[in-house]
Amino acid sequence: MRYKIGILIESDFYEPEIDYYQKYFKDAGFEVHFLSRLWGNAELTFKGHEERRHFKCNESFENIDDIALKSYAAIIVPAGYVADRLRFTDDVHKLPPACKFLERCFADKDLVKGIICHGVWLMAPISYLVKGRKMVVHNNLLGDAKVMGINYVNQDVIVDGDLVSARTGNDYIPFAQSIVETITANKSGFKNVEAGFRSLQKALESKIESLERKIESLEKSNRNTIQPYYNSQSYVKPTVRNNKVPRVLICATNYGTWAEELQAQWDACKRAGFEVTLATPNGKKPLPFAISVDPNFYDPIQKVTVNPPDVCRRCKELVNGNEWAHPIKFADINMDNYDAVSMAGGPGVTLDLCNSWELHQAILKAIKSDKIVGALCYSVAALVFCRDPENDYKSVIYGHKITAHPRAWDFYGPGMAMDYKLYGATSDNKGTDVVTPGFLIPLEDLVRGAVGSREATGGRGACISRINANRESPQVYYDHPFVTGTSVESSIAFGDLLVKAIKEHIR
After folding, report:
1. DSSP for 207-266?
2. Bridge partners of 33?
3. In 3D, which of 312, 320, 317, 324 has the Cα closest to residue 280?
4. Among 102, 136, 319, 378, which residue's beta carbon has the most beta carbons within 10 A?
5. pTM of the entire structure?
């Protein structure tokens, strides 16, 4: 039964990567074990590379025999200088112990091997194991990859059978996700863990059903006194702080929001019992991009039908009703009145949201007041362009982990010109006649930083841009104070995470 994930460790490890692995793999149902060469000691303490943080390790890979190795689903060589330190050998005529261990790992085809960034250094003495394999390495190691005979592929994460590789330490999130996905695909090595997950899921579903029955009973008994914001079945009693309900400001474009990206977070906050105020640049109703309320719209890039019919009906109900009819102007925003600010995405945000001075002032005030800041899909551009004059005019997301609409999903190429036709347009709220050659700006490039540098998110930050995100597996992330989400498929998950972050932060 393969229920463990082993991660090699030594000094000069990359702290954010190791922190993420500890939580992510545990949440995925695995035991996480950190392995090193202990030189006969019961325990050694290693120091991180960025923060010089201490990390204690008490397990040696030299003590793992062939039977014990069968309990591991994956072995990971992490980023930083871990690999360089582990490839030391006492006898220059013999392989380093860590390389001997990896030889045994590569001999087991049911064991997933993960190598990220400079981790490929550890493969140099045993390069025959990766010769001809599809991999990506850090750009600094392109020459090393060529000498080692690696079949280099220019992508951030590559899966080649039982081998998963990633370009840099900042790619640890999609790297870890790909490792779990690869383990899951290996039915022979994962079937016991998978059965355990099914059992846990069944137990959780039973518990949820029990809780739902209790909630329904409570709602029936209080129906005469409770006035729900949306509907009684989804109503949740407001979170109270100092006898006040949380107040959320949601900002949207006047040139074409993506309907669900506004609707999902609006309804999530309303269901939570929050006071919600809507704001737009000119104070007019935020009309949705016409194709975003078309249940038959087929995305020509992703090759999927994007808009569920029930979502389209709800969005049209909001547009045609009064809830979105009277937003305030950006110029009238006073962040002292709100506990959080969030932004909806859509093609129009690049025309009037992403470089709005008034919106930037609200974001800066929210950050400096320690309030939650949300951004979904292309509204993340407003965070990229929001600069902090007290921090050398760096982007406010510098050093944070932020999602980005994938470059591969952008409308770009022949026949991809975009107009900004709106649903429900009127003579005094008609949007714009502008036509752009596809999406106006590639958001993933902005978040990653110009020409491959990571200026926007900083050395300790990360761009999270997963092209396999979908409604069943959405991509959202909370790195305080920022809650961000990839695109429309993650709208519901974004709204839920936004509500959770606000509740927990102001508790």
Report:
1. HHHHHHHHHHHHHHHHTTT---SS-GGG--PPP-BTTB--EEEEE--SS-B-HHHHHHHH
2. 6
3. 324
4. 378
5. 0.56
**Chain position carrying tokens 């082993």:** 6
CB crowding 284-317: b at 16 or more within 10 Å, else e: bbbbbbbbbbeeebeeeeeeeebbeeebbebbbe
Between 4 and 465, the more confident residue is 4
Sign of CA dihedral 51, 52, 56, 59: positive
The proportion of the chain whose per-residue pLDDT surpasses 70, expressed as a percent, equals 86
- As given in the structure block, the two tokens for residue 238 are 């407001």
E strand spans, 340-381: 340-343, 372-376
Does the pLDDT of residue 478 top 90, yes or no?
yes
> Which stretch of DSSP H or E encloses residue 310?
helix 309-320
**268-284 pLDDT, tens per residue?**
999 999 999 999 999 99
Q: For strand 340-343 and strand 372-376, is the pairing parallel, antiparallel, or unpaired? A: parallel
Instruction: Give 79's DSSP letter.
Output: S
CA atoms within 13 A on the CB side of 196: 11
Weakest mean pLDDT among 7-16, 134-143, 215-224, 321-330: 215-224
> What does pLDDT average to over the chain?
87
Q: Residue 307: left if φ>0, alpha if ψ -120 to 50, beta else—which one? A: beta
Cα-to-chain-centroid distance, residue 262: 19
Pick from 14, 13, 64, 20: nearest CA to 38 = 64
Axis crossing angle, helix 172-185 with helix 15-27, rounded to the nearest 10: 30
**How many CA atoms lie less than 13 Å away from 71 in the CB half-sphere?**
10
Q: In this predicted structure, what is the pLDDT of residue 224?
A: 36
The answer to whether the Cα torsion of 438, 443, 446, 452 is positive or negative is negative
Measured distance CA(76)–CA(467) in Å, rounded: 23
Closest CA to 252 of 351, 340, 336, 322: 351
Phi then psi for residue 367, to 5 deg, are -65, -45
pLDDT computed for residue 134 by the predictor? 96
| Domains (range + CATH), the chain | 4-185 (3.40.50.880), 244-506 (3.40.50.880)
Residue 244 has a pLDDT of 66
pLDDT band at 182 (very low <50, low <70, confident <90, very high): very high
